[in-house]
Task: inverse folding
């Protein structure tokens, strides 16, 4: 299935900030292409944009994205997922990072059938953005 793209101007009209878009593109979190001399992003990136900086408790993220709490903790400790707040009794993560990491991991797991190889693919993808 072909991915739909929207221009930066269309994304801004939908509520995205130009500065946020540029940061996410420069860091590699969102991939951009040129269409008719305009920068375009995947339309499904708009959902990710609305999650940037949104805190989600690790327990809620585990349930929502069907991934274990220890795995999310390991990814946060490795720097793949930003921690927004960490207290003795709980930890909140950036939901956009959670969604991106889980998507990459599950896609790699589906392709390789190996949790080990999926973990390596996630590591490569998430360290590229730094």
Result:
């Amino acid at each position: 299935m072909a991915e739909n793209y929207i221009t930066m101007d269309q994304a801004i009209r939908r509520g995205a900030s130009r500065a946020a878009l540029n940061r996410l593109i420069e860091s590699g979190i969102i991939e951009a292409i040129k269409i008719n001399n305009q920068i375009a992003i995947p339309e499904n990136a708009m959902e990710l944009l609305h999650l940037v900086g949104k805190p989600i408790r690790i327990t809620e993220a585990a349930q929502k994205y069907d991934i274990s709490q220890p795995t999310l903790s390991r990814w946060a400790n490795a720097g793949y997922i930003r921690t927004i707040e960490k207290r003795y009794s709980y930890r909140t993560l950036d939901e956009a990072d959670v969604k991106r990491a889980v998507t990459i991991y599950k896609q790699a797991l589906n392709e390789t059938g190996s949790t080990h190889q999926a973990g390596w693919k996630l590591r490569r993808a998430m360290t590229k953005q730094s």
Summary: The chain is about 55% helix and 15% strand. The helical segments are 8-13, 18-26, 45-51, 58-65, 69-78, 95-112, 115-128. Residues 26 and 114 are 30 Å apart (CA to CA).
